[in-house]
Automatic annotation (TrEMBL):
Transmembrane segments: 12-32, 140-158
GO cellular component: membrane
Alphabetical keyword list: Membrane, Transmembrane, Transmembrane helix
InterPro entries with a match to the protein in the record: MAPEG-like_dom_sf, Membr-assoc_MAPEG
Keyword Transmembrane in annotation: yes
Signal peptide: none
Organism, scientific name: Clonostachys chloroleuca
Name listed for the protein in its UniProt record: Membrane-associated, eicosanoid/glutathione metabolism (MAPEG) protein
UniProt main location, coarse: membrane
Location relative to the cell: Membrane
Superkingdom of the source species: Eukaryota
Length: 162
């Protein structure tokens, strides 16, 4: 697989390019949530003046035991997917930096990056669309697989930087 990626992206450093791409992927569920809130009038539409309060009101409604609509639940899952992506980004950025500091081959870095990006896409989709506890375990599995590229890069770095 590494050779295929090298042929598709010769001399291209896609892991560095993945840093802004990962931020974009993290923001997509947020933008989707805004679209849903605005187009369906949830709580009067998205509050861009105080978006955290908008989300907090939905969370408070859920926390008070009131049933959220499917749409409100989707909006909250979109916001959670965004938050997870932004929380995970520094780990990925550190892995990319350590990968280059420890001279992980470009082809390997590209391979790990494609796994990372594809898992983040699948994870976001599952986060936003998963409605049942049982189905949420698939999302958890995908998240665990998404850890693999960064962990392998850190292991490479630990071996090279002794």
């Amino acid at each position: 697989m590494s050779q295929v990626i090298q042929n598709l992206f010769p001399e291209m450093n896609i892991s560095v390019a993945s840093l802004p791409a990962t931020l974009l992927l993290s923001a997509l569920p947020h933008w989707y949530s805004i679209y849903l809130a605005e187009s369906n009038g949830v709580q009067g539409g998205w509050s861009n003046q105080n978006p955290r309060a908008f989300v907090a009101r939905l969370n408070a409604k859920a926390g008070s035991g009131k049933k959220l609509t499917d749409l409100e639940e989707t909006i909250l899952r979109g916001q959670s997917a965004q938050q997870n992506g932004f929380e995970w980004w520094p780990v990925w950025a550190a892995a990319v930096a350590f990968g280059y500091l420890s001279n992980v081959p470009l082809a390997d870095m590209n391979q790990y990056t494609l796994i990372h990006l594809s898992m983040r896409i699948v994870y976001n989709y599952l986060y936003v669309t998963t409605k049942t506890r049982r189905a949420s375990y698939l999302r958890t599995i995908v998240f665990q697989v998404s850890l693999y590229p960064a962990l392998v890069i850190f292991i490479h770095a630990a071996r090279a930087m002794r």
